[in-house]
Predict the structure.
Amino acid sequence: MDQTINKTAVKGHHSQTLGRLLKLVITTSPAMFIISTITIILAAASNVIGTLFIEQLINNYITPLVKEVNKGQTPNFGPLAYAIAVMFGIYAIGFISNYLFTMLMGVLAQKVQFRVRNEMFSHMESLPISYFDQNDYGDIMSRYTNDIDTLMQMISQSIPQFTNSVLTLIFVVAAMFLLSWQLTLFSFIVFALSFGIVRYLTKKSSHYFQIQQKKLGQINGYNEEMLNGLKVIKVFSHEPETKAGFDEYNDELRKASGRANTYATILFPIMGNMGNLLYVLIAFVGGAAAINNWAPLSLGAIASFLQLSKMFSMPIAQISQQLNSIVIALAGARRIFQLQDEHSEEDDGVVTISRDKKVEGLWNWNVPQKDGSVKKVPVRGHIIFDHVNFSYIPEKQILHDISINAKPGMKVALVGETGAGKTTISNMLNRFYEIDSGTITYDGIPIKKIKKDDLRQSLSIVLQETHLFAGTIMDNIRFGNPDASDDEVYQAAKLSHADEFIHELDKGYDTVIDGDGGDLSQGQMQLLSIARAMIADEPVMILDEATSSIDTRTEKMVQSGMDNLLAGRTSFVIAHRLSTIVNSDLILVLDHGHIIEAGNHDELLKEKGYYYELYTGKKEIQ
């Protein structure tokens, strides 16, 4: 019963996905789809009509000429030439139609691919951070690569060939019945005997193709994992073990692919031979029926029927083969649609932010009023967490009764072991996640009333894990403020002390780097990310282990620049190195989501509690 339900559900998923996919194809280019459909029909019909024309060619043109020759008369080849020209025209229409639908579907597939990638990327940008925390990046990337590639192959090849085969089969059967219903029934009986073999091979190939896709995903995942950990592998000399693991996955993929392709490719020879067997049997039975007057069959009808019998078996084999490709592509299409169906990040905020046109460096909140007017509230950076509780999953609470009063210009440091909740607090401020209870206000405005884009525009963040983009050094710094001038970029680089190593590069600020930073060290990449935050010049700064990848000497230089940057701005600093936060106005010590100590450096040292033990080295941050 469960298996029946599962099969029904799978079929339902496939039909829904196929319907949605066809709608996508049609709406992408209706004219191209209509023309392609017409040419597919013409291509299938012309082949069958041309084959039917053989009957007239033999009965009405060739046979009379033979009789004239036998009687010693001068044959008139004009009607035969005309008939051959007509037949050539029929097949020419089929050839041109086949070329057109192949070309058009290829172009249409590219258009659909372009549209799907655009829609996927645009929608992905709107998804909440929680989606990316819960889904593997490799799996998301495979939707842009493997799944879209199989989808494109399905649109450009599988669906057109499948449709052409189905139409050809329908037209062939209709033509066979038109010529002789007796021979048609005989053909069905012969073919029915081979149907069991075809069904067995199709089922086997489909099963192993699914295993092949699974094994392909496993080996790709293994390769990605090993590439990311290549340095660790070399450090511990684990190359033999890694190679053995790869060999195991590779061998499993080889076996699955071998079986899938064996069953798939053997189908055509079997169907071809079945067509030959059917050809011989029909020639024998049809000839005997014509000679003995068992059925009203002419020589031309037998010739046409023989040709149709060869055309009868191949579409069935093609349909079986294309079904495997379509099933695999539909699985990929369903994964693509799953991403597109993910709910975008909800945003019910109404308050926006804008720079003050009169005073440079000042920002205003634009707060809508009940009378329709908009009240300008200066952005001061006063942030209050009032009894905030949060949990990523209901069963496990992360933050417990967090209360913070970060006054304008205050530097707030968050200290604690890994998993204490430091980064989670910054995630709450950005509204990457929504709190369970309590309130967070920003200049007296609940942050839920502020539009997320505007809220995040007021926050400049330097993350622990640096990420640069492919482009020049100048472009990467300017990412924080696309409208910044070159002089502003230079100033930000000097404040972060990135200017020193940039001038040592061959092309300076015009040096092109890739997304991994190229030949830059981790510390240099972090300096660029700090410069990027500096040029944004936003009211509130969040530094999440911003100096973790910088050596002690560089840290001192950066610290002086950061102090200049943070002056007059509210800032939240997450740090393992306590030397970077001793000048903080407020230090919060967290333990398992609880604030266990609060005060400035001198106050916490006098308490001789957890912070005192960390600072004096009696306890280390894990």
Remarks:
- The two ends are 53 Å apart (CA to CA).
